[in-house]
Amino acid sequence: MPNPTAAMLVIGDEILSGRTRDSNMHHLAGELTRRGITLVEVRVVSDSRDAIMTAVRELKDRADHVFTSGGIGPTHDDITADCIAAAFGVSIDVRDDARALMAAHYDRQGMEFNAARMRMARIPEGATLIENPVSVAPGFTLGNVHVMAGVPTVFQAMVASVLPKLTGGAPLQSQTLRIDRGEGDVAGPLGELAAEYPELSIGSYPFQRDGAYGTNIVIRGTDGPMVSAAMAKLAQLFPGTPA
Amino acid sequence: MPNPTAAMLVIGDEILSGRTRDSNMHHLAGELTRRGITLVEVRVVSDSRDAIMTAVRELKDRADHVFTSGGIGPTHDDITADCIAAAFGVSIDVRDDARALMAAHYDRQGMEFNAARMRMARIPEGATLIENPVSVAPGFTLGNVHVMAGVPTVFQAMVASVLPKLTGGAPLQSQTLRIDRGEGDVAGPLGELAAEYPELSIGSYPFQRDGAYGTNIVIRGTDGPMVSAAMAKLAQLFPGTPA
User: Fold this and answer.
1) A17:B220 CB<8 A
2) Distances in whole angstroms, Cα of residue A91 to Cα of each of A71, A130, B79, B184
3) Chain A: closest CA distance from residue B2 (Å)
4) Do the Cβ atoms of B74 and A15 come within 8 Å?
5) Is A21's pLDDT higher than 90?
6) Distance (Å) from the C-alpha of residue A180 to the closest C-alpha of chain B?
7) CB-nearest partner of A74 from B46, B183, B201
8) Would you list the domain boundaries of chain A?
9) Whose C-alpha in A122, A179, B73, B95 is 20 to 30 A from the C-alpha of A110?
10) How far apart are CA B193 and CA B202, in angstroms?
11) What kind and span of H or E run contains A204?
12) What angle do CA B48, B53, B57 make, to 5 degrees?
């Protein structure tokens, strides 16, 4: 059985303008791989209703799970929750359990639970909450879409809340061989090896160090013994390289 | 006149598996903003023919320019050039000028110009070459799609070759105000300011430092005096904050 698939939607003008460097994609990619879920596509879109809704509608049909990052704070440009509700055709309103969590949090902090913060208790009908141990305002799961904050510490905490509840697949096994030759010298034999093992993903990553060319070959697959067998053949093709 | 738009397509299993952290998106985003071109969407897809062709077809109709990153090396999984040719319905073959550039380069380096490296001289019919001052093998522009390498030093050099040839728009002006209050305290007045200036993009970025909450407000737009006027109002709303 093939592994479950995932797509990610990063929402935020600040990423597209180059002001902020996204780090949530790399974090989620690594966590999904460890869990045996294949990340098939990532999209980054602006804080625009049309852009968010188009992307959500397309991605939720394309992958088993969709993870969104960003746009669920208290300000005017935080429109993700409304867009998700609209994409699923359900209503959205302040929900009692989310409001209670947040009221208790702001009370402890001595901060005002004002109208802007109350927006973060708005949850689409039928969603389940995603715990936020960092700053309390919850994310939510609606259908196969997991809606999470963009602030990296909060995003990571929410990923840690959600992933254990999902059915994973066979974790990806990965082995790497460093070959001290240019990618163009490796490419021919490597292509033949890849054709011999269609179930494996064989990638080559060239580098240059102290003026010398080298290539890291990464062999990935869910069948560990097969990965090892392909790696042994590769090492035979390029003897004298580090194990 | 609105600024020209761009989309980016990052191609590579290694990004989606979490092995490699993409840095090309952040670089391109900053360069486009400086040039007055609005990046409206980024997609990351795997080294799969279907995924690349679907994304290229959709993005080239959605934005004035599409920039791709990755998948133009010498190995079996480098299929970007073929997919772009197929997406435009044109043929692809080794082209004399690209082959001559590369033959001279490998000759100088004392490296074999073998069949694998020759693949990098395959250019779709009707494309123009993008110079690669780092490792010579060229990128290309076909229609509104600019096809570039994934290795960051090469990608950056190719961006530097392409961008001066494009018509830019009014560069985005940006001003930032740090407010030493939580985002939820800022959100109400900020929403009113945003409604007053629909032409501007007003973003808020919360942070926590030494246990205290703060929010950076970024006001962006192509009309510099308007950005300054909105920023002056914001500073009045939150007096006593650093200028």
Assistant:
1) yes
2) 18, 18, 44, 24
3) 16
4) no
5) yes
6) 14
7) B183
8) 5-165, 173-237
9) A122
10) 9
11) strand A201-209
12) 155
Q: Fold match between B5-165 and B173-237?
A: no
Assign B243 a pLDDT band (cuts: 50, 70, 90). very low
A104-144: pLDDT as tens digits: 999 998 889 999 999 999 999 999 999 999 889 999 999 99
- In the predicted model, what is the mean pLDDT of residues A20-48? 95
Which residues numbered 115-154 in B keep a CB inside 8 Å of some CB on A?
Answer: 115-117, 119-120, 151
**Is B218 in Cβ contact with A115 (below 8 Å)?**
no
Residues A151/A75, Cβ–Cβ less than 8 Å: no
CB-CB neighbours of B92 under 10 Å: 18
> What distance in Å separates the CA atoms of residue B17 and residue A33, rounded to the nearest whole number?
6
Q: For position B242, what pLDDT does the model report?
A: 54
Range 79-118 of A in CB contact (< 8 A) with B: 111-112, 114-117
More confident residue, B69 or A34: B69
- Measure in Å the smallest separation between the Cα of B142 and chain A Cα atoms: 23
pLDDT in tens, B131-172: 999 889 999 999 999 999 999 999 999 999 999 999 888 888
The answer to whether A169 and A1 have CB atoms below 8 angstroms apart is: yes
φ, ψ of residue A30 in degrees (nearest 5): -65, -40
Chain A residues lying within 8 Å of B107, measured CB to CB: none
CB-CB contact of A153 with A134 (8 Å): yes
CATH class belonging to A5-165? alpha beta
Q: How confident is the model at residue A243 (pLDDT cuts 50, 70, 90)?
A: very low
Global confidence as pTM: 0.91
ipTM: 0.90
- Residue among B22, B28, B75 minimizing CB distance to A204: B75
Predicted confidence (pLDDT) per residue in B188-226, tens digit: 999 999 999 999 989 888 887 877 888 999 998 889 999
B166 lies within 8 A of chain A by CB: no
